[in-house]
Amino acid sequence: MDDLSSLSMLELFRVEAENQTAVLNSGLLELERDPGASHQLEALMRAAHSLKGAARIVNLNVAVRVAHAMEDCFVAAQKGNLKLRQEEIDVLFRGVDLLLYISKRSETELAGWETDHATEINDFLETLTRVMTASQVNEFSAAAPQVQRSEQTVDPDSPVGVAGSKLKVERTVESGESRPVESPPLLHGVEVDSPNSQLTAPPATPTELSGSTDSPNRVLRLTAENLNRLLGLAGESLVGSRWLHPFAEAMLRLKRQQSDLAKSLDSLREAIQCGVRSAETGIPHSAFRLPNLEAQLNDVFSRVTECRMGLTDRLADLEIYDRRSANLSHRLYLEVLKCRMRPFGDAVARYPRMVRDLVRSLGKEVQLEILGESTQVDRDILEKLEAPLAHLLRNAVDHGCEPPQERRQTGKPPTGTVRLEARHSAGMLLIIIADDGAGIDPEQLRQAVVQKNLTTREVAEKLSEAELYEFLFLPGFTLKQTVTEISGRGVGLDVVLNMVKSVRGTIRVNSQRGKGTRFQLQLPITLSVIRTLLVEVAGEPYAIPLAQITRTMKLPLDKIESLEGRHHFLFGEQHIGLLAARQVLDCGDHKPSGDHLPVVVLGDRATRYGLVVDDFLGERELVVQTLDPRLGKVKDISAAALMEDGSPVLIVDVEDLVRSIDKLVSGGRLDKVNRSAIDTTAKQRKRILAVDDSLTVRELERKLLTGRGYLAEVAVDGMDGWNAVRTGHYDLVITDVDMPRLDGIELVTLIKKDAHLSSLPVMIVSYKDREEDRLRGLEAGADYYLTKGSFHDETLLQAVVDLIGEPDDSGPLPPPPPSVGVGQRGAV
Questions:
Q1: Counts of helices then strands in the chain (DSSP H, E)
Q2: Whole-prediction pTM value?
């Protein structure tokens, strides 16, 4: 639990009211659905009781009176003196709304609020007293004989007493002794049921305590379990950081050994030079004696071996530390991420009540089903969902579900169903709002589109249902002929679409005439991590959110057409404008090479563009880092992130980018993609992807390959490598065997089974020279097997040349090495 000392008592009361009114709403809804659900009465009584005690602490007498009256009602129902029917439940719902409304008033508003709303408050209290008295009279006539009742005046704090009424207070007879039921005592201003009971507290739900989402000082509630796990991980991190000191000392010892070795080499070199001069002049030199030289050589070799072993040990230690720290960092990140997550049920607690009230006002019969309440969602996304989901649910009840009589005529049950579901799928959050109503009439929608002059009749006739549904999200568009308090103004779906776009999500509509309508929202699980496609533009990487990419492709040059002075290509049945990312991002002229252009298709169906980039660099999950607010809004950029090697990358703001493209197009300043600049005869450097979960090995491979002249890229594991291979072009893949998520043998299998990648050479590299790995690699289709011990000589580079040639593809291939020892081509 976070420190709540900074919150005022009134703010704490608001938290209490939010939690307890949610309990009251859910309990009353359950009683309304099932009048026999008497187990709900205890929870309802406790919620009203807790609210009364909390209101008394902050001196909200009006809330005390309302909560006390509701508590009396629930106590009477518990004792069997009162049955909560529809009339009583309606009045109690009024009380819940009144308590929630009071809790949201500021201190200045509350000063005169009770006086200004005295009529409203007294009306509620008198109504509740009336329905309770009427029900109690009916119940008293059927009372059990062992219960005696006497008439007593109610506590002055009770709203019934204020109204001048009297209630029957039960006296129970136990062993012949009559004892009045006393009101609960007060303990330090907080009501408790008995001297042995515990003080009530708000349930530990992860609810925002105060402040809006934009407030930099907002307070979040954490569970003790979350905090304990964070402390445990922080402790591991502290212990792990202490490893660096002895490692640094070991490296200093190795440095001293190398310094001594350098001195020995200098002495040896001097002795050899003396021997050379002696041989040239024929005059013996005292510094050159063969036994001394042999001893010096042995000493040097011994020191070299010692340094090599020390360096090997330190590299092994560094790799172990790298794996441990990477694992710890990942666990720590996931745990912190959990603290930002809330169950989906926290955001939907008010919807059953909302649907219930809406159904009663429309005279319909509809039940709401909520699935996936435990699904974890980022707090910020959950808050943004509140208004859109309310709009979609109101539409489902008002537009979707038919009146009972109409449903009976079509063979449906009189009660309609609206389903609200949340679940995780493929790393995204799926939210589905579906109804079993009449569905959307495509012809009615088509006519509405034409009547509102949104398109011509000829074009409207050719639109598919999916294209027609997109008009539903336009501002001011509605199929309602009349405007009501609930709908008809055409603003609901517009709000939904804007929210979905703001979090880089998508929305889809499916409808079947007579069977219902389904809205599916696909949103990121969290806003702190984003899945992106990395592209290269003018030598710099840029990240484009995957959710906002329509398609990526390698566009053949012969598919580019010139239309109205600009370059286009055919995408399905649509002509897509083609432009260079360098021009949009102001990075210089585009100079393509090769016979295919890397193209990213962006935008919606109405305005799509093909953005020509220099290269695809693969998919990455990035932790979003906000830009310094002093920079203001950076054109076409939304945020930044750090790559695995610590280098920065900018995340593209796709909507802003499309607006920039629109401005270039409308101003006639869009350049052509210069196909004539393509030099198909230019020598191309070979690209190699090194896949290994060890940072040390990855960097060693990258440096070896880069030093030889190849373009080397790295992937952190098999799955990362598979994503990179599918989205980029490589001449060779070098992969480890033992890796998380997807091992090297599985990666080779996927590559060789893919029709577009089957000819891509793959070299397997492993620490372990295991026969079973060789056999598995042979079956998978690997082209070369090599152990990591060969990194210290030219064997790896020679094997690369043997497979794909020199870096610039010039000159004949050299012959294979006469004896590569641990490296074997073909027969893995």
A1: 24, 29
A2: 0.52
